[in-house]
């Protein structure tokens, strides 16, 4: 039987979930995988423990884990980039394999970490970094290995998805929905990462790197969050037959790759439109398989702990098989957002007066933007009303120039809402 001697970094929400899962299911894991998990030491800086752990396991000194002579596997659940990076690199240098749930760390410093792992012939598993309990990393690394990946369309931030679902289905306002997501343990310690798209961008950086076998740069991913979405956008989108979702997208486009996170209009009948609450879904198109959908709980203690512990079992099995580990190599070139082609939703705030639509469509026409649908609900002469326009496929650069010009017209009040549509 393969025995893993584990050092745990962090005993917060996910860390305590991992600890108790290993305690509860150790027998089952050993039966299913032939691997026994033994926790040797736990470093926790806060000591705000919600679970009872034997005192002799605990330390506040991280070095007693990452340099411990009897530990062969470090499970990193501190989160954040610094000083966690330093601990992970020390663990690798000290001959430990690493399991982590840390998407920010991998997206921003993956290159350095993977190089270090290769240099010291160590393994790194990170199933819990994307999609909580959904085995999408293993799916990409193993299950889809014969495919050239064409595209990934994903809902990978549970907090944003929960907020948008609550706003859509129950009419909740943004702040109340965010508070509920925080109470349920979905949100990051800094929820700006959730609602402004940073968390989803970290995750799509990891998926893009695995899908294309080259390291994507987190900074190349175009990011827009959901904080500017209003109830009226959800209602107007609904009238046109769309739902608004925070999508993280990576796709092949010509000889490059597009990678972006954005609130997106998707048709109500699209398979991702019904992914609600804290659920995540990752729709991957491979050239051999066609579309493959991964769906499940993308956040929360139990699903995430399940992914971490499954990595430990996989790691134990991989050790006996002595299979070499594949890491992304080189850099993935991501196209600049200004070059992408998309359909758009515009909500202009305009003064309701004759000829106003003609003026706006004139500017759009000058930038070769073709309109597919228009609605103006309210009739309030001389007052500000929303005017909604949907376009056919156009280039982002043309949209930016046109909206910049329109926002400066005297009949237009406030900043235009611009959302992209994916069919
Ligand atoms: N804050 C993340 C989310 C947790 O809401 O999806 C899981 O990574």
UniProtKB/TrEMBL annotation:
Class of enzymatic activity (EC top level): oxidoreductase
EC number of the protein: 1.1.1.3
Keywords: Amino-acid biosynthesis, Methionine biosynthesis, NADP, Oxidoreductase, Threonine biosynthesis
GO biological process annotation, one example: methionine biosynthetic process
Pathway(s) served: Amino-acid biosynthesis; L-threonine biosynthesis; L-threonine from L-aspartate: step 3/5; Amino-acid biosynthesis; L-methionine biosynthesis via de novo pathway; L-homoserine from L-aspartate: step 3/3
Cited InterPro entries: ACT-like_dom_sf, ACT_dom, Asp/hSer_DH_NAD-bd, HDH, HDH_cat, HDH_CS, NAD(P)-bd_dom_sf
Catalytic reactions on record: L-homoserine + NADP(+) = L-aspartate 4-semialdehyde + NADPH + H(+)
Keyword Amino-acid biosynthesis recorded: yes
Binding site for L-homoserine: 188
Pfam families: ACT, Homoserine_dh, NAD_binding_3
Binding sites annotated in the UniProt record for NADPH: 103
MF (Gene Ontology): homoserine dehydrogenase activity; NADP binding
Amino-acid positions noted as binding NADP(+) in the UniProt annotation, renumbered to this chain: 9-16
Annotated ranges, domain ACT: 345-420
Top-rank taxon, per record: Bacteria
Catalytic-site annotation from UniProt: 203 (proton donor)
Family to which the UniProt record says this protein belongs: Belongs to the homoserine dehydrogenase family.
Protein name per UniProt: Homoserine dehydrogenase
Organism field: Candidatus Abzuiibacterium crystallinum
């Amino acid at each position: 039987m393969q025995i893993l001697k584990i050092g745990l970094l962090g005993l917060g929400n996910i860390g305590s979930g991992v600890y108790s899962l290993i305690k509860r299911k150790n027998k089952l894991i050993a039966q299913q995988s032939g691997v026994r998990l033994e926790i040797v030491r736990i470093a926790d800086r806060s000591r705000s423990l919600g679970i009872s752990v034997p005192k002799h396991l605990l330390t506040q000194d991280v070095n007693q884990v990452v340099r411990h002579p009897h530990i062969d596997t470090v499970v990193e659940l501190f989160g954040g980039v610094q000083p966690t990076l330093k601990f992970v690199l020390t663990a690798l240098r000290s001959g430990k394999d690493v399991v982590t749930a840390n998407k920010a760390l991998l997206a921003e410093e993956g290159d350095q970490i993977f190089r270090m792992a290769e240099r010291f012939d160590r393994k790194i598993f990170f199933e819990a970094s994307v999609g909580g309990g959904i085995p999408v990393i293993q799916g990409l690394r193993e299950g889809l290995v014969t495919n050239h990946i064409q595209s990934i369309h994903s809902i990978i931030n549970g907090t944003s998805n929960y907020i948008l679902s609550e706003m859509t289905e129950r009419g909740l306002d943004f702040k109340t929905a965010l508070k509920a997501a925080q109470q349920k343990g979905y949100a990051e310690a800094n929820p700006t990462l959730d609602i402004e798209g940073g968390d989803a961008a970290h995750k799509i950086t990891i998926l893009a790197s695995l899908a294309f076998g080259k390291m994507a740069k987190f900074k190349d991913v175009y990011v827009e969050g959901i904080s500017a979405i209003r109830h009226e956008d959800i209602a107007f989108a609904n009238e046109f037959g769309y739902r608004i979702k925070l999508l993280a997208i990576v796709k092949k486009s010509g000889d490059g790759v597009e990678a972006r996170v954005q609130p997106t209009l998707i048709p109500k009948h699209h398979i991702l439109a019904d992914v609600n609450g804290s659920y995540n879904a990752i729709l991957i198109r491979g050239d051999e398989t066609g579309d493959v959908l991964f769906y499940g709980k993308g956040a929360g203690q139990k699903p995430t702990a399940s992914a971490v512990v499954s990595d430990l079992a996989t790691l134990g099995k991989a050790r006996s098989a002595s299979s070499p580990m594949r890491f992304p190599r080189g850099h993935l070139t991501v196209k600049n957002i200004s070059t992408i082609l998309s359909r758009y939703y515009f909500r202009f705030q305009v003064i309701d007066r004759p000829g106003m639509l003609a003026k706006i469509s004139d500017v759009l026409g000058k930038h070769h933007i073709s309109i597919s649908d228009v609605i103006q609900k309210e009739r309030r002469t001389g007052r500000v009303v929303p005017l909604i326009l949907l376009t056919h496929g156009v280039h982002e650069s043309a949209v930016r120039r046109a909206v910049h010009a329109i926002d400066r017209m005297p009949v237009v009040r406030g900043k235009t809402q611009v959302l992209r549509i994916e069919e």
